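Hello,

Our lab assistant flagged a job as stuck in the queue for most of the afternoon. It eventually completed. Since we weren't sure the result was trustworthy after the delay, we are filing this so someone can double-check. Below is the sequence as submitted and the structure that was eventually returned. Let us know if re-running is recommended.
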Amino acid sequence: MTKTIEIVVMPNGQATVTTKGFQGTSCREASRFVEQAIGKSAGERLTPEFYQAESIQQSQRQRT
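-- returned structure --
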């Protein structure tokens, strides 16, 4: 899957940043520059991919 960062700016000035194709915390690292440029965050909603990658990493740690 291609990695993308989608930015939607509403007429009232509110903006949303959505990342697609990222796993785990890499989405936060990839979108950090956009979020800093936009300003204060009103909230965060994490996707299933965020948790999926974390559980895979934890499983790998438990095996070693």
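-- support follow-up --
The delay was a queue issue, not a problem with the job. The result is valid. The beta strands are 4-9, 15-20. The mean pLDDT is 81.
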